Amino acid sequence: MPLLNPKMSSKPLSKMTPSLLYQDGCQPCTVLQTLQEFRKSRELCDVIIQVGSSEIPAHRAVLAASSPYFKAMFTSQLCESTQHHVTMREVDGAALDQLITFIYTATMTVDENNVQALLSCATLLQMTGVCAACCQFLEKQLAPCNCLGIRQFADLHNCNQLRNEANKYLHQHFSEVIQEEEFLLMEYQDLHDLVTSDFLGGGDEETVFQAVTSWLSYDMENRLYAAKSLFCSVRFPLLSTNFLIQQVKENPVVTNSIECYKEVAEQLETKLQVKYSSHADDIFPRRRWSVTEVVVAAGGESDGVTLSSLEFYDPQQDNWTYSLPQARREGQQCKGLSTPRTGLGLVAQDKCIYILGGSNCSHPLRTVEVYDYLQNEWDSFPDMTTPRHGMGAAFLGGRLFAVGGRDQTSYLNTVEMFCPQNQMWSAVSSMRSCRCFLGVAELGGMLYAVGGSGSETSGRLNQYLNTTERYDPNLNTWTSICPMNECRSYVSIAALDGCIYTISGYNGLWHNTVERYDPRINRWMYVSPVLTKRSSHGVTILNGCIYAIGGFNGVRNVNDVEMYEPRVDRWRRVSPMRTRRYGAGTTTVCIM
């Protein structure tokens, strides 16, 4: 007997359950399996990817759903969007075929034979999960014979976390690495940077000397030019007198260079005098590899009080302190800013932190302060030409830029640049829009200005902006690029792995959304949101991760901090700051 009379009214039946939610967890797998069968038999395939003589059939929608690269290719006005045969050049055919198969099957094998080609191809296709898997595989393969090559490969593909792990391994196993041929094939500058490091496997200076002489001896004729500069990196006073006499003074590399021989002779002569010298304290033994970078937060506002204090985050200890976590002066509290300020610009370069503009609550500032964090000393710096509150700052081509902000009467589109040669600020081309509380970052030799409050036409009209523009220093011009999906002011941005990330912000409501801009396809895409809605917060990069720091959550100023891991598209909380900070400046500094 039928459950319902077909002539029954279509009105709802009051005694029946309102609805039934049906879910089939196997459905996604079934669809993928069927699509893979279609692909094998070339059914319903609407594109052929041509790599050399190989053809890879596929479905546009499937590729576009799995790769931002393919999505941009097939949904834009590019000629490939309508072509049935699409040719891809400078791509490994086997790797591309394996990645497309992975798109349909969600399974792949990474091994030593394919990992480099897979990572290169996955980077192009922006398949972040595969990139992460390849990096994890390479991290597990680190050995004395390959860590230098893996570090160089990571540099090539902007894999920051992998590079950090390879660098850490290199420093910890330095004495083993120098026995390998890969070490002997290093470029001079890479070797110079290495042997000047304070962190080389436990502090054995004899090993450093051995490394330098081995590298020079490998190709004496063509490398002797570098002998003096490399030997200057050896801390001869830390070598024993016997070693200087028996191993150093008679070494063929030393005797083949008059300059080197003189240098060693002088070192031997003064060896016994070093402990009485006024410079004795300047010669430090090398230490084992430890934390090399820390986050700094400066200034801002807390509970109505404008701050001058600084605090530092040590990722190894996962804690914040008011002193720099560095062995030579650990526990010494950092000196604060001479002028408390909020809404400031903050950048770091060459062991110095630059604090620009902001407001001391009564008016916008044009002053700039410079902090030598290793010496714990502040120094004066030429004032900007314009007071700027809510400005952005960045280094580009070795020059310091101050971007936008607000003076006492209006929002600004002006930009000024500090030239270290003449110690002066000068105006460069203005932005197309007036912007305050914007995000500014350098990427690929260009300067990006993102969002903010302001106007496309007038410096007096307060609008929340989603527009983005890019400055080319060679042309001295700003160009509008793809706008964000959302308007955002009081926003912070960061450049990582060839992309711009814009985090949270305010446009009448506080947001936790995060967008990523890829300049290769000129498009913004959403990634995982932050855990806490925030505005006027700090953002910085540390060890290949993005940190969102402090700010205002719509109710109160916050001190919480969270970290984004791009490999897994995930945010997680780390230790909070000691002080709630709104409108602070943040950056990452090297304390190695």
Automatic annotation (TrEMBL):
Keywords: Kelch repeat, Repeat, Ubl conjugation pathway. Gene3D superfamilies: 1.25.40.420, Kelch-type beta propeller, Potassium Channel Kv1.1, Chain A. One of its GO terms (biological process) is proteasome-mediated ubiquitin-dependent protein catabolic process. One of its GO terms (molecular function) is ubiquitin-like ligase-substrate adaptor activity. Residues 45-112 form the BTB domain. One of its GO terms (cellular component) is cytoplasm. Pathway: Protein modification; protein ubiquitination. Transmembrane segments: none annotated. PROSITE patterns: BTB (PS50097). InterPro entries: BACK, BTB-kelch_protein, BTB/POZ_dom, Gal_Oxase/kelch_b-propeller, Kelch-typ_b-propeller, Kelch_1, SKP1/BTB/POZ_sf. This is Kelch-like protein 20.
